[in-house]
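Deliverable D2.4 — example input (structure tokens):
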């Protein structure tokens, strides 16, 4: 589908939706094609989505609960470590 720049600016969100659904949009300037807008395909099934679908993992919308991390006091300051590594 060919679309002029003026038409694209006036209805940008509409053309973006069409590109996302697989429609190739050719942008024209003075009736010459100057660019093409192509939608990005969906990312597909990620590893986390596969684990959730298989029932191996579950998620209830909150932040993941990880192992308790307890920092030990008395070490060097990060600024001192950075200065040492700079030479």
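Example output (designed residues):
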């Amino acid at each position: 589908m060919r679309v002029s720049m003026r038409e694209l600016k006036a209805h940008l969100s509409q053309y973006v939706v069409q590109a996302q659904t697989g429609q190739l949009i050719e942008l024209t300037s003075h009736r010459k094609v100057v660019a093409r807008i192509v939608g990005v395909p969906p990312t597909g099934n990620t590893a986390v989505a596969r684990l959730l679908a298989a029932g191996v993992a579950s998620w209830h919308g909150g932040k993941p609960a990880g192992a308790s991390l307890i920092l030990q006091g008395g070490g060097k300051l990060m600024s001192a470590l950075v200065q040492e590594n700079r030479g």
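Residues 2-37 form one domain.
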